Amino acid sequence: MIDLYTWSTPNGRKVSIMLEECALPYRVHPIDIGKGDQFTPEFVAINPNSKIPAIVDQRGPEGSPYPLFESGAILLYLAWKTGRFLPTPVVRQFHTIQWLMFQMGGVGPFFGQAHHFLRNAPEPVPYAIQRYTKETLRLYGVMNSHLEHHEYLADVYSVADIATYPWVARHEWHKVDLEEFPAVKRWFDAIGARPAVQAGMKVPQVVR
């Protein structure tokens, strides 16, 4: 059994999608980041960086509970654990990992900053809006050019797609029309049709 500590954000949804795709049994522990749940001593003991998501695999590599944080690391761990969504041989693995790092180092940070300055900043900051919107559009262009010639980011469905999809799912938040990036839209629609993705995107189900 895997305990998943998460909230309804793109980074959190990466892991719930992966757990659903791998058909691993898991328990959800909602961490309401709006209320500061990520700063409780109980959660900090699992993730000292006070960010979601985090997991505790009750049957870790050595048979004992194994805590892990950082969404990319969790995806790689679950791929190792199940032998799924990280293709072999090693050349294909690193081809996949480079696209996972593209999400971790580019898509996530820049889309996230665009979200903040477009939606949450206490007052408009034109320079920041221009900077992060411009980079967001550039990243969409990179994906679109690549996906014109590849079905998935790493040729086969993988952790790279699982990591990137929840961020593209918020395209309206960063004011991107997917019709302007048809290859991305084709990829996005295909992934969104997967039952495990649909299930993972609903985690956690919070009653308000």
Describe it.
Strands 2-1-3-4 form a four-stranded mixed sheet, covered by helices on one side. It has 208 residues and is α+β, with helices and mostly antiparallel strands. It is globular and about 50 Å long. It contains eight helices and four strands; from the N terminus they run E-H-E-H-E-E-H-H-H-H-H-H. The protein is 52% helix and 9% strand. A hairpin with an 8-residue loop joins strand 3 (54-57) and strand 4.
Summarize the topology.
Elements: E1 2-6, H1 10-22, E2 26-30, H2 41-44, E3 54-57, E4 66-69, H3 71-82, H4 90-120, H5 126-147, H6 159-168, H7 182-192, H8 195-200
Parallel strand pairs: 1-2
Antiparallel strand pairs: 1-3, 3-4
Helix pairs in contact: 1-3, 1-6, 4-5, 4-6, 5-7
Distance between the termini: 27 Å
Largest sheet: 4 strands, mixed
Kindly state the percentage of residues in helix: 40-55%
Rounded mean pLDDT score: 96
Biggest sheet strand line-up: 2-1-3-4
Overall geometry comes to globular
What would you call the structural class? alpha+beta
The tally of helices reads 8
Number of strands: 4
Q: Which strand-content bin applies to the residues?
A: 5-15%
Q: Which series of helices and strands comes N to C?
A: EHEHEEHHHHHH
- List low-pLDDT spans: none
